[in-house]
Amino acid sequence: MSTAFLLLASRSQPFSIPGLDAHATGNNAVPWTIVFSLTLLTVLPAILLSMTPMVRLLVVFHFLRQALGTQTAPSNQVLMGLGLMMTWFLMQPVLVQVDQQAVEPFRSGQISGLEAIRRGSEPPKAFMLRYAREKDLALFTAASMTARPSKPQDLPLRVVVPAYMLSELKAGFEIGAVLFLPFLLVDMVVASVTTAIGMFQLPPVVISTPLKILLFVMVDGWNLLAGSLLKSF
């Protein structure tokens, strides 16, 4: 009986589930979508720190905390969250362009995965070139032994990204240095007063830190700082 059953099974049609085979042999964009999504999730932290304004924001927030004299307030998580939300706000027009030029055509099957990546990299490159200094671009162009292009848009990403990061670090340090000056003045005044009245046992930072925090709150410092950072882009 078992032999007869095997003969009947060999002569019958292959087993298949309706709809499953059609899905497996259908649109070829599904594997590309999975690969692209997993790759994007892996490199997302590096993209945020190298191709967005987050570098400048975090540097300025760090200088502000050091100038106020509060070592752990606001915490790193709070500053990271604020920087992330401001980065998302600033990059919203760029993300809309990427969605229109690359994501939607790829999702509808009009372009391939590699073409979607090429088109999707153009809006971030244009954003970075807007704030990258020519001096930094020339540095990495010469270091990569790349022929000098006729226009900056022809530069590859391996040149634009590090040049943009250097420019953002310089801008962040410039803003941080200017931000330090009024708080440094408060420290100098408090140190001079405590020294003049002979309060050698009391560290000046104990008095200057509350005064700096009070000054920062009175002038609505967070609003002014956020507005200045947004206007710098």
Secondary structure topology:
Blueprint: H1 2-11, H2 20-24, H3 29-50, H4 54-68, H5 76-107, H6 113-120, H7 122-131, H8 134-143, H9 157-196, H10 204-218, H11 221-231
Helix pairs in contact: 4-5, 4-9, 5-6, 5-7, 7-9, 8-9, 9-10
**Number of helices in the DSSP assignment:** 11
Uncertain runs are 1-27
How many separate domains make up the residues? 1
Number of strands: 0
Question: Could you give the order of the helices and strands?
Answer: HHHHHHHHHHH
Question: Main sheet?
Answer: none
Which structural class fits the helix and strand makeup? Answer: mainly alpha
Which descriptor suits the 3D outline? Answer: elongated
- What is the percentage of strand-forming residues? under 5%
| Cα-based radius of gyration, to the nearest Å | 28 Å
Q: Would you tell me the overall average pLDDT? A: 76
Cα end-to-end separation: 80 Å
Helix content: over 70%
